[in-house]
Amino acid sequence: MSIKRSLLSVPLRISTLAMVFFLMLGSQAFAANPDVSDSDEAVAAGKTIFNANCKSCHKLDQKYTGPALRGVSDRRSIDWAKSFIKNSQALIATGDAQANALYKEYNNLAMPAHEFLSDDDVMNLLSYIEYGDKAEAVVEGAAGEGAQVGGGSGVPSEYLTIIVAVLVVVLLLILIVLGLIISVLTKYLNNQKLDEEDDEFINQKFDVKKLFKSDAFLIIVTALVIALVAKTAIDGLYSVGIQQGYQPSQPIAFSHELHAGQYEIECQYCHTGVEIGKSANIPSANICMNCHTHIQNVGGKEGISTEIAKIYAAVDNNQPIEWVRVHNLPDLAYFNHSQHVAVGGIECQTCHGPIQEMEVVYQHSTLTMGWCIDCHRQTEIAAQGNEYYDKLMQLHAGSKDALKVKDIGGLECAKCHY
Amino acid sequence: MKFTHSINLVASFGLAFGLSSCGASGEKPGYEFAPQMYHSIAYEPLSQIRNEEEGGWLSTREDEKGEFYNSNPNNPHGMTMREPVANTVPRSNNGTLPYRLKAFELEKAALIENPVEFNDQVLAEGQQLYIQYCSTCHGLGGEGDGKAGEVIGGVANLKGGAYINLPEGHIFHVITAGKGRMLPHGSQISQERRWKIVHYVKQEIQKQ
């Protein structure tokens, strides 16, 4: 009996231990107020409310703009949470110690009031906060890995290299085989009886000296050299006054590839003059600070990056940032950005090239007069919805071709030179 | 005979490769045909040459400075642009006066009505402006999911309950003066354009 009992009791004890262990695990991860429901409906309803109103500042298990929320019903009373969520500023004004400490900890950043939430809404929200999406971080990590695996797409270029290598090997093999055939044939013919002419033909040596001295060779080489020199000289002359490819390094290593490419910030956000004035304008430091007040380093690193610190230094000391101008249109030509971008509806990239891929900006186009004129000859007027062009369109209606810039003075000298 | 021949050869090669380095690349802007016609005599707002010696080799200036020297000695940092004189009022082309409410006067601002009349064209312009100036953080649909916004954090979901019923004057004031983690955008966007954005936010994004 006693043996039986002890045998039975072993697994019993293990299961009890396991239960206690898991309970403790649970209590370590978070504790929730027993009033908060853990039903699926409440969690789902809370999730909708959370995503619409809280997500941009709060995460469940991680400090973000605001504190991590899980466990809040244990840290604070339900009533406190309700009044803070509904109107945090009112609660702070009553002098509540916890609310004021929190407000101070997060740099006096006020949380918007959510008075439209009913008590039931807040309870559902708390259910989601305590019981929702526990595996969030793990799922995100897995998704990230998946994306990385799918990212490699260099297969076609690899194939190309392999094909080229195989071709080279095959050609070399053919060359070797041909050489072997020649030597075998020569040996064979030397053993045969031949007349003198054929014998001489077989045993002739390749005379390098003779070739160098031959007229044909000299003429060809001289012509080639003259052509090369002339082409270099003419190309050189044509490149005078053209700054295509100019890529100066800037005082701050600002990357258009990161800002315009990766983060898809529209050009006009910083270059505010482009639709309303002659120049697109270089943004002043306060525009940088719109984001860089909060973003102090790249790639999620801690501390302040040395490049971003230069913006802070410029703002603190009221010093201008002396950017190096890349596009220097000669003073003899007039150009207006707003006419081209706002009226003509031309994309920035048409003239400036793939800016969103440039780590350091370079001059993409030649900016020569021929380049301007070429575009004026081909571009149709964007007359749609612009009553300025109505009369011109009427007058032009009889023509076979569309109304182009060249037809309304786009080739006139005084349009740009005055 | 042979000596002069080789000199000619070397000279022509030198000329060719000398000329080939006239173009621009990297840090080098390249050479110019007619520098005096390329460089502005008037002060330029976006370019400045502060070196007084620059272009001295072709200078005909009376003050004996270099031909290309172009920097306003009377202004701080040699800049051309200056801040407007204190207490002056800029004239706008449609007669609107500058917006004068301070950042903390949000409640007063909420009472202001949108002076820009609403029509389809204003809505289209507002959408364009919203994409240019707001979508970076607030996202195309206004849900606070713009790419830069995700890095900054704490971007308002314009469709969220706390924001959806805000008056137009409130939205205008926040664009102008900033609120919470959002910084003022008044210097970037003109008043009229800000009101057009407000129309788009109210009529399209917060459509109920």
Automatic annotation (TrEMBL), chain A:
CDD domains: Cytochrom_C3. Keywords: Heme, Iron, Membrane, Metal-binding, Signal, Transmembrane, Transmembrane helix. PANTHER family: CYTOCHROME C7-LIKE DOMAIN-CONTAINING PROTEIN, LIPOPROTEIN CYTOCHROME C. The keyword Membrane applies. This is Quinol:cytochrome c oxidoreductase pentaheme cytochrome subunit. SUPFAM superfamilies: Cytochrome c (SSF46626), Multiheme cytochromes (SSF48695). Residues 1-31 form the signal peptide. It comes from Rhodonellum ikkaensis. The chain crosses the membrane at residues 159-185, 216-234. Residues 41-133 form the Cytochrome c domain.
Automatic annotation (TrEMBL), chain B:
GO terms for molecular function: electron transfer activity; heme binding; metal ion binding. The keyword Ribonucleoprotein does not apply. Residues 121-205 form the Cytochrome c domain. Keywords: Heme, Iron, Metal-binding. Gene3D superfamilies: Cytochrome c-like domain (1.10.760.10). It holds the Pfam family Cytochrome_CBB3. InterPro entries: Cyt_c-like_dom, Cyt_c-like_dom_sf. The keyword Membrane does not apply. This is Cytochrome C. It comes from Rhodonellum psychrophilum GCM71 = DSM 17998. The lineage of its organism: Bacteria, Pseudomonadati, Bacteroidota, Cytophagia, Cytophagales.
